[in-house]
From TrEMBL, chains A, B:
It comes from Nocardioides gansuensis. One of its GO terms (molecular function) is DNA-binding transcription factor activity. Residues 25-122 form the HTH arsR-type domain. This is Transcriptional regulator. InterPro entries: ArsR-like_HTH, ArsR_HTH, HTH_ArsR_DNA-bd_dom, HTH_MetalResp_TranReg, WH-like_DNA-bd_sf, WH_DNA-bd_sf. PROSITE patterns: HTH_ARSR_1 (PS00846), HTH_ARSR_2 (PS50987). It comes from the Bacteria. Keywords: DNA-binding, Transcription, Transcription regulation. The lineage of its organism: Bacteria, Bacillati, Actinomycetota, Actinomycetes, Propionibacteriales.
Amino acid sequence: MSKLLPLADPVESVACCSPLVSRPMTADEAEAAAPLLKALADPVRLRLVSLIASHADGEACVCDLNDAFDLSQPTISHHLKTLHEAGLLDRSKEGVWVYYRIRPAAFDAIGALLATSGTATSGSRS
Amino acid sequence: MSKLLPLADPVESVACCSPLVSRPMTADEAEAAAPLLKALADPVRLRLVSLIASHADGEACVCDLNDAFDLSQPTISHHLKTLHEAGLLDRSKEGVWVYYRIRPAAFDAIGALLATSGTATSGSRS
DNA sequence: CATCAATATTGACAGATGTCGTTGTCTGGC
DNA sequence: GCCAGACAACGACATCTGTCAATATTGATG
């Protein structure tokens, strides 16, 4: 499920001038992958994800997140919803509080995507 | 340059419940990183990058790219400009033709970012 | 039950984005 | 010098997005 695109065979990739990926993305694959990146492509949401990831257990309460921004509560709530609907965050309610947790699989998928699109797999020394 | 955020010490990360990253992203870091993702967060641009990456040498002529889509030439040109301005693609003119090439460093940066935000570093088994 | 605190939902609005048609700018060939 | 082809820039337009204020919902508590 995290295999969005087949990478070219490692052996082949090492050779001088072979393509970076074995075949281009299909339109459907692109349509499926774009929403994940879109959800992440906002400074506020990036920080939200980062904040949650930097908490112990990779989960954080909305009340903590609200305080980290100068934005209104509904705005934060909206961004969290966006991330949740994209499948990047899990939600769980505990009493009055709501906790959001990083969903690792989604980030793995994006990682695979990027390794695919560019070169990021094994850190090219630029 | 590709180090957008410091990961938690590997040693610590292995321990049960320590944070995934050593510290959250700053607002400035997020503002800097978001445009890269935003440039990539579009189905057409994803396919463009993918198409270029799947060409030998990781470069492709605009004329080839235009034919792969049902969109107008100006639209493709616009998307290529977006990717170029985000630093994801390099441009070079050869006679009448213009070639776009994957810029690996930019993708490395995004890769580091994601390893940071989520878990994608070492393939978590979901 | 009344009230308060934590989140979500709704509605509104300015600004960004994707697309197109048209026009402009090169470059190479006649 | 002129024309045709490859690509970029411009202007227009509909849609999407981020934000807020106001309101609703839900759970704990007195």
